Amino acid sequence: MKNFWKQHEKNIIIHGEKMNIIESCLDRHAEKTPDKLVFVFENENGKIKKFTYKQLQKEVNKFANLLNGLNIKPSSRVFIFLPKIPEMYISILGIIKQGSIAVPLFEAFQKDGLELRLEKGDADVLITNKELSMRIPKDINKKVPALKHIFIVDEKNYQNQIKKQSEEFHAVLKNRKDTATMIFTSSTAGTPVAGIQIPHQALIQQNYTAKLVLGLNKYSNYWCTAHPGWVTGTIYGIIAPLSIGCTNYILEAHFDAKNWINFLKKNKISVIYTAPTALRMLKPEIKKQDLKLVRNICSVGEALNTSLFDFYKKLGVGINDSYWQTETGAIVIATWKGLKKRHGSMGKAIPGITAEIIDDTIALKPDFPSIMTGIYKHKNMYKRYFKNDWFRTNDSATKDKDRYFFFIGRKDDIIKTSGERVSPIEIESILMKHKTVKEAAVIGIPDELKGNVLRAFVVLNNNFKPSDNLKQELSMFVKQNYAGHSYPKEIEFIQSLPKTNSGKIIRMKLREMIH
Question: How many Å apart are CA 186 and CA 173, to the nearest integer?
């Protein structure tokens, strides 16, 4: 398959074994089509901000120069903790162009979730705003000694520094396998979060799949609904579409069906990439005429069920499903234009990918350019993904005689809720910080709208009694201290947790308790 990817390298600027993805994603378009719109942002209040490729390049260059001026060494880990505002996107691109590693974080993480990631990733720099900076622990420099700079993007000091910077900057060339982005994801190898390292050369596959599966071209009006703190939002919300040169639309506001439909229509969106949860939530409001300019809907993050596919097909748009992981760095299995869709199937391995079912799970030949090149500070965890010349995804699936894949679910304990991976270990550790909680175990239970919701089983300390008020208090405790998107919607108090002789929680028993 290496010859296949060699052919597609021609679409990407590579200097022998050296490259910087920003040359392909931004610089070439700023030169050829400087006045073309690249980003159109709409904030919570409906205010719109637009950038052409040339304007974006200037802002990205200024940010890269700011890092250089502070002696931020290339290959530093620069964390970005912001909402879906222009500074989030500009800084990610500027970090990579300067030769460092962009580490985006989802804005819903609270103090503990943020601290854990900064600590595990040895953050050198943190970029945030006034509101989110309130979640930075006061003793963060003790916990993360590498952290030398914190930029607050809506403070005058930062804005004055940026204004002073030059608008010229030459991309720092890196080795093809050097890390461009590090994305934190829930993991199952003994740690709740791990930094997945995605290399510069991944762009070859990201560019190819954005054309094949998403159907993007330079004329597309494209909307990826994911936040850049998740891999979809960084790879297919920024990097891949910019490599193609299309116009990208970003809505900062939280989900509201009518608002989403209005955004879709007024911006004449032709391609949308989102999670099945969002498509389910749109169902009560969306009509056929709302989708008349949409030529492609693509889904990601969780299983696409048959009824949802059929609903949108009746509205005149077939959904292209896509399967990949943070660890694969780009789409590996999907449906695309010209490939016949099959009910309940997420499609076939894309050209250039060899996929099989081994031990009931999806396995991939690790000879594609976007595959992760490491897991930060976890060499053994990284090695465990590879066995007998195969990359093991740990996702259960089946394959029919025509090589269509059918997703079953995660083999491990990771929970998919609203298309995002959540580690029960993290949620449990937060619950156990509450004074009433002695032990806790979290599982995912099926939900028609979100795929799964979190259910917590809680053993209380002596002198505390179960109550509905306490259930609500514990849910809010997780929401406020960990993340607004990952808290138990259901809580059940029990006397003791089912465990093995070695003390490991038997989650299967907990699942049986609710059936």
Answer: 31
What CATH number should be reported for the domain holding residue 252? 3.40.50.12780
| Domain extent for 375 | 1-20+202-412
Do residues 252 and 327 share a domain?
yes
The pLDDT mean for the chain works out to: 90
Count of CA atoms in the C-beta half-sphere (13 A) of 241? 28
Same domain? For 379 and 447 the reply is no
What pLDDT sits at residue 190? Answer: 44
Residue written as tokens 């960990």? 482
- Residue 276 pLDDT class (50, 70, 90 cuts): confident
* Last-in-domain residue among 395, 412, 429: 412
What is the pairing mode between strands 333-334 and 319-323? antiparallel
Q: Shortest CA distance to 238 belongs to which of 223, 252, 256, 253?
A: 223
Please give the helix or strand (H or E) that residue 140 lies within, else none: helix 140-143
Note whether 465 and 358 are same-domain residues. no
CATH assignment of the domain containing 472: 3.30.300.30
229's tokens: 């703190």
> Each residue of 77-135: pLDDT tens digit?
999 999 999 999 999 999 999 999 999 998 888 888 899 899 999 999 999 999 999 99
pLDDT, one tens digit per residue, over 342-386 is 887 899 999 999 999 998 899 999 999 999 999 999 999 899 999
Q: In the β-sheet with 490-493, what is the strand arrangement from edge to edge?
A: 437-447, 451-460, 490-493
Number of CB atoms found within 10 A of residue 388's CB: 7
Q: Is 444 within the bounds of a domain? A: yes
Looking at the fold, whether 477 and 363 belong to one and the same domain comes out as: no
Give the model's confidence band at 412: pLDDT under 50 very low, under 70 low, under 90 confident, else very high.
low
Three-class SS of residue 292? coil
pLDDT digits (tens, 9 = 90+) for 492-512: 898 888 765 444 566 767 776
pLDDT at position 189 over 50 = no
Nearest Cα neighbor of 187 from 407, 386, 372, 413 is: 413
Q: Which of 390, 412, 434 is the last residue of a domain?
A: 412
**Residue 163 included in any domain:** no
User: What are the tokens at 366?
Assistant: 């690790």
* CB proximity list for 171: less than 8 A, separation 6 or greater: 20, 22, 23, 27, 97
- Rounded to whole angstroms, the Cα distance separating 276 from 496 reads 36
What's the confidence (pLDDT) of residue 410? Answer: 61
Whether 61 is covered by a domain: the verdict is no
Alpha-helical segments (H) within 298-443: 306-314, 379-384, 424-431
Three-state secondary structure of 202-271: HHHHHHHHHHHCCCCCCCCEEEECCCCCCHHHHHHHHHHHHHHCCEEEEECCCCCHHHHHHHHHHCCCCE
Do 267 and 293 belong together in one domain? Answer: yes
Q: In the Cβ-directed half-sphere of 389, how many Cα atoms lie within 13 Å?
A: 2
What is the C-alpha separation between 352 and 77, in angstroms, rounded?
31
